[in-house]
Amino acid sequence: MRILIVEDAQDMAEAVAIRLTRAGMACDLAGSCGEAHDFLAVQSYDVVVLDINLPDGMGTEVLQALRARADRTPVLMLTALFSVDDRVSALDLGADDYLTKPFDPRELEARVRALHRRESGQKAEELRLGALRFNPAAMSATRDGARLDLTRRELTLLALLMRNAGKTMSKERLYQGLFSFDDADVGLNAIELYIARLRKKLTGTGVVIETQRGLGYCLRATP
Amino acid sequence: MRILIVEDAQDMAEAVAIRLTRAGMACDLAGSCGEAHDFLAVQSYDVVVLDINLPDGMGTEVLQALRARADRTPVLMLTALFSVDDRVSALDLGADDYLTKPFDPRELEARVRALHRRESGQKAEELRLGALRFNPAAMSATRDGARLDLTRRELTLLALLMRNAGKTMSKERLYQGLFSFDDADVGLNAIELYIARLRKKLTGTGVVIETQRGLGYCLRATP
DNA sequence: TCTTCGACGATCAGGATGCGCATGGGATCT
DNA sequence: AGATCCCATGCGCATCCTGATCGTCGAAGA
After folding, report:
1. Which nucleotides of D are covered by protein (CB under 7 A)?
2. Could you tell me the CATH superfamily of domain A2-123?
3. Is residue B44 within 8 angstroms of chain A, CB to CB?
4. Which of A24, A104, A110 sits opposite B43 (nearest CB)?
5. What is the mean pLDDT of residues A114-127?
6. Contact, A212 CB vs strand D, < 7 Å
7. Is B166 within 8 Å of chain A by CB?
8. pLDDT tens digits for A67-90?
9. Strand partners, A164
């Protein structure tokens, strides 16, 4: 799950980011409307957490711009204001939820999760390919009922590939799914590393990861 | 198991909450339709106990709103009214069960449990894994007929794991089931603590709790 | 068709990180 | 008074990622 946090107060933003990251979400931080626009132009998110007061304008501008291009990404507004008008106008502009400061980070986490749940509508069915089964609910991959021993990164990578089985996934695309911008210093060959590990653990499953030189990787069943 | 109790009569609400809490359920209390909506926007519940008479409207509104967004959470209606019409309309709106006041708290507890069992697709009342047997109604776990001496939290945690045996349960997921919003300041490592205690008490039962670093915990029978 | 070169990908080992476990102790409930 | 519950802290180790080296593919030229 990919989250954009738009908040100018550094400490607040980081606290939130740490919390959500622990919860398994990949977070990007934007400190202003401008930055937010940049991020949103480049990357799509599952949920946007949006502060109203920003140094270069109101957060509602970001929301408006988003909705103006028919982007339905769930938005959670943060506000120090107590005014009912502000809340109402935020909701009218297409915000999906709001939270007034100060708030319990636990509550924020829960709301973000709720928004995502509402949006994705509980699409948790088992994926199959070859002798391999991937169960999103159990967070596990099995072969003939035997559970594959995968680490967190390996599992999310496999999930990405399974959901796009047969399609060529560029290294950048996989990178986006695995890391957040905070992991900015992570090299691209980290992907190659996890591909290699996955390949080893997938031997005998009737599933292989093909390398498409210069293009990316592709998961497919062996004939 | 996480329960939302929507009831404006303070004493009644608390009595129910205490009863269910003792039975190992994590309860949140809402005193009005508005509060109920807030809770439901943020947290998903296993069962909602819903009074019909609320200060700011009818409980059925909450039910309607819930079903309107395709939320199938089991709802148990409480009503002082004796009218058959009310019961019928409640059931038509998607309530799963109802109880007329005054009621025996034991009956409420049993019905809540039944609703949850039905929803989660559990066949038998008793759950078995390895040499371990768990009885949700009696809140007791036995091994070869000998009762394991578990505390309330330990039992609740075991219940969660037994119901999802074989699935990896994230620490956050377990947290949601164990604690209510009133326990807001409880840290995440409380989970680790109870896992450790449970593990000790489960030695010899043919059941182990596996740690999946960064992912969560998984209960399974030893081969 | 064969060769050569360049670039991309695979692999390995080692160090940093942070997760999960254990212990002790204080607070709260029975 | 006793049990239960939960926090704080420190340690050990699985995981993660880097950096460098080796392998390999493919295009261009003869």
Report:
1. 3-9, 14-20, 25-26
2. Response regulator (3.40.50.2300)
3. yes
4. A110
5. 69
6. no
7. yes
8. 887 788 889 988 876 555 666 666
9. none
Cα–Cα distances (Å) from B157 to B1, B2, B150, B165, B174, in that order, read 9, 12, 10, 12, 7
Choose which CATH entry (1.20.59.10, 1.10.10.10, 3.30.390.50, 3.40.1060.10) describes domain A127-221: 1.10.10.10
- B176: tokens are 């949601």
Distance CA A117, CA B44 (A): 10
Is pTM beyond 0.70? Reply is: yes
Q: Which residues of A touch B26 (CB under 8 A)?
A: none
Q: Report whether pLDDT(B155) > 80.
A: yes
Q: Looking at the predicted structure, is the pLDDT value of residue B196 above 90?
A: yes
Are A151 and B213 in contact (CB < 8 Å)? Answer: yes
Q: Which residues of A touch B218 (CB under 8 A)?
A: 140
- For CATH 3.40.50.2300, the residue range(s) in chain A are 2-123
pLDDT computed for residue B86 by the predictor: 67
CB B117 within 8 A of CB B162: no
Q: How far is A59 from chain B (nearest CA, A)?
A: 22
Q: How many angstroms separate the Cα of A222 from the Cα of each of A39, A154, A192, A197, A218? A: 39, 20, 21, 18, 12
Considering any atom of strand C, list protein residues whose CB lies within 7 Å.
Answer: A 22, 171, 189, 192-193, 195-196, 199, 211, 213-215; B 171, 189, 192-193, 195-196, 199, 211-216
pLDDT of residue A6: 93
Q: How far is B181 from chain A (nearest CA, A)?
A: 9
Rounded to whole angstroms, the Cα distance separating A74 from A46 reads 7
Burial environment of residue A209 by CB neighbours within 10 A (0 to 12, 13 to 18, 19 or more): middle
Q: At A63, list the tokens.
A: 């929301």
C-beta atoms surrounding B214 within 10 Å: 12
